[in-house]
Amino acid sequence: MAKDQRKWPLWAAGAALAVLLVGCGTPSSNWGTGVVTEADPWGAYEAVVPIPAPDAPPRVFQCTGPWAPTTTEVNLIADFGQQAISRADVMQPDGSMAPGSVLLAGEPKLRVDIAWADALGYTIPTRVAFTDETRWGVAGITIGTSLADVEKANGGPFRLVGFGGTNGGVVADWRGGRLANMTGPCRLGVQFAISALASDSAQAKVSGPKVYNSSDPAIRAINPTVGQFWVRYKW
């Protein structure tokens, strides 16, 4: 079955192979199992293959397929399996907590928190968030991505809030770059973390509610990397 395993792409392309995901309830080296249709000289048949967890390249999140703006909790259960979806309070776009859905709550590297505009029907997604150790990626951005690489992904500099406090290091404006115009009705949010090697004096120069350009020498001096990211749906 090694041939089948090599054919599995990132989840964004999974729908093209008509994959049904099941058995995602407990941590393991696999995302779960999938059923694919194979063919040989004797005809077509169904094969069950393992889907590897993203320990190497990250899963690619896009606002399409299971994460389209029309998705619902019912859709996510159909896509990922009943055992993979649970309910818990998750962060809303305004920073408050309210009931939402969680994909793979017991697996931090794969966990996804989904907030809904309709908290009773669990429909109309408003925010999708990832852990600070996630193996998911959005538009080429992953945990640990450098400031310079985020600028490359964006196609130019951006603006971010000074460090310290809840919103410290959050991107305030992509300045019309590529990351401001993701595929689908989505908007990427990123919060940077300061390098542990940055001196206290260097950190003091970029602390506070002031908004800085990512090209500012004082920002570059602390060598920030992506510490958290999320996706908001535009309605």
Automatic annotation (TrEMBL):
PROSITE patterns xref list: PROKAR_LIPOPROTEIN (PS51257)
Keywords (A to Z) from UniProt: Signal
Organism superkingdom: Bacteria
Signal peptide coordinates: 1-31
Name used for this protein in its record: Uncharacterized protein
Origin species: Aquabacter spiritensis
Taxonomy of the source species: Bacteria, Pseudomonadati, Pseudomonadota, Alphaproteobacteria, Hyphomicrobiales
